[in-house]
Amino acid sequence: MASEGTIVRPKWLFGQFVQPTHDFFDMLNRQAAKTLEGMRALGDWINDQDCEGRCQTVRDLENQADELKLDLGKKLTESFITPFDREDIYDLSQLLDEVINSAKNIVREIEAYDVKPSNKATALTELIAILTEGTQCLVLSFAALKNGPKEAYNQAVLARKSENRLTKAYRQAVRDLLQEDDLKLIMRVTEVYRSFLDGGEKIDRVAEKLLHAIIKMG
Q: Is 9 domain-assigned?
């Protein structure tokens, strides 16, 4: 409780004179854009009928996105004022990192189980297309976060819907796969398909956190 004669200034008034040192909206935007770049690189690799060997591009982009995440975390510790809840900023950055990590994990699974993308082009192409679209919605949501909360909200909702679409595509892909006679192939490809589901779950978690942050900001 303030002592008698003490002037208590509202936090909102204080915030008018002390502006954030760093542009966290821009940092989140850049991390989201790098995440989408990684997902698109994965799609290019999967859709390349002549692809051979490792998909190093996705790994490189994941490293770059990780640097952006670490830089944002460092600047959070240096900042007295943030444009919205600092824990939400931190969580959004961490969850975005999990999305591009899922893209790298898909690469690992395809390589580990020796599943040639060209062998299952139709299913893999559909699955990566849905993941890319969901990530694109996240990018649009982050881009609108500062000045267009309604659009940010709508895009986050669309990102969440991508997980349902992915689940349906996954089930159809597994049904088609079960028509194969090679049990080892079925087991290997199923594991790859599951890694796409994990990517969809990661996108959904970012979108859910975005919706939570947008409501708090309003």
A: no
**CATH code of 115's domain:** 1.20.58.220
Domain that holds residue 165: 22-217
DSSP structure string for the chain: -PPTTPPPPPHHHHHHHS--SS-HHHHHHHHHHHHHHHHHHHHHHHH-TT--S--HHHHHHHHHHHHHHHHHHHHHHH-S--SS-HHHHHHHHHHHHHHHHHHHHHHHHHHHTT--GGGGHHHHHHHHHHHHHHHHHHHHHHHHTTT-HHHHHHHHHHHHHHHHHHHHHHHHHHHHHTT-S-HHHHHHHHHHHHHHHHHHHHHHHHHHHHHHHHHHH-
Q: What is the pLDDT of residues 177-210, one digit of tens each?
A: 999 899 999 999 999 999 999 999 999 999 999 9
Q: Do the domain assignments include residue 17? A: no
Q: Count up the domains in the chain and report the number.
A: 1
Contact between residue 73 and residue 93 where contact means Cβ atoms under 8 Å apart: yes
Residue 193 covered by a domain: yes
| Segment 39-58, tens digit of pLDDT | 999 999 888 755 555 688 99
C-alpha to C-alpha distance for 90 and 178, rounded to whole angstroms = 42
pTM: 0.87
CA 73/CA 96 separation, integer angstroms: 13
